[in-house]
Amino acid sequence: AQRVTQPEKLLSVFKGAPVELKCNYSYSGSPELFWYVQYSRQRLQLLLRHISRESIKGFTADLNKGETSFHLKKPFAQEEDSAMYYCALLLSPSNTGKLIFGQGTTLQVKP
Amino acid sequence: DAGITQSPRYKITETGRQVTLMCHQTWSHSYMFWYRQDLGHGLRLIYYSAAADITDKGEVPDGYVVSRSKTENFPLTLESATRSQTSVYFCASSDWEGNSPLHFGNGTRLTVT
């Protein structure tokens, strides 16, 4: 079955501390994975996607096929990073654009 | 992105009533989606549409009906609302060629009493 799991509902860290938001997936094919973010009173928006291998707002995520994971990391958290983060998997066939999302993790960065 | 709008922003309705949530996008995106957001479940896909007059079920379609007579509109109807349909509903659109991301609306918070 195709599934995305984010084991932590809430992650609370202090400003300047490293952050790792966990995401594990179950998928039989070659996965395409994304991280979306929802800041308070804002729309859900794309943060990054694994095929781009980019760093956005200091966040990176590496696809580990052996561990079926796509964890989101940032070396030094900022207060403005406080938000809800969703990991998402593109379902096949990929040209439908259908994403399934994990349960979401709320990141709270304390001053 | 002001290009995708949902209405109403908030809605309270009674069990058994029909209610329609509206979604309008101005980009002429081919793909449109409806998700519901619930604590502990994250976002779950209800229905999606690849183009006008083409719709298909997602993960949780029961109790919902969609239509897409025009590319820009994708209304979601709850034919007989139940308390379990109390949720925040998000519409999204995408021009999926080249792996473009989903663009989300602001959401509709629906309460069924």
Can you tell me about this structure?
Chain A is mainly beta and 111 residues long. Chain A has strands spanning 3-5, 10-14, 19-21, 24-26, 33-38, 44-49, 60-61, 72-74, 83-90, 99-101, 105-110. In chain A, strands 2, 5, 6, 9, 10 and 11 form a six-stranded mixed β-sheet that branches. A three-stranded antiparallel β-sheet of chain A has the order 3-8-7, with no helix packed on it. In chain A, a hairpin with a 5-residue loop joins β5 and β6 (44-49). In chain A, 37% of the residues are buried. The model of chain A has no long low-confidence stretch (mean pLDDT 91). Chain B is mostly beta strands. Chain B is built from no helices and eleven strands. In chain B, strands 2, 4, 5, 6, 9, 10 and 11 form a seven-stranded mixed β-sheet that branches. Chain B has a four-stranded antiparallel β-sheet with strand order 1-3-8-7, with no helix packed on it. Chain B starts with a strand and ends with a strand. Chain A binds chain B through residues 6, 9, 32, 34, 36, 43-46, 49, 51, 86, 88, 94-104, and chain B through 1, 31, 33, 35, 40-45, 48, 50, 58-59, 90, 92, 94, 96, 99, 101-102, 104-107.
Helices and strands, with pairings:
The complex is a heterodimer of chains A (111) and B (113).
Chain A: E1 3-5, E2 10-14, E3 19-21, E4 24-26, E5 33-38, E6 44-49, E7 60-61, E8 72-74, E9 83-90, E10 99-101, E11 105-110
Parallel strand pairs in A: 2-11
Antiparallel strand pairs in A: 1-4, 3-8, 5-6, 5-9, 7-8, 9-10, 9-11
Chain B: E1 4-7, E2 10-13, E3 19-25, E4 31-38, E5 42-51, E6 54-57, E7 64-66, E8 76-78, E9 87-94, E10 103-104, E11 108-112
Parallel strand pairs in B: 2-11
Antiparallel strand pairs in B: 1-3, 3-8, 4-5, 4-9, 5-6, 7-8, 9-10, 9-11
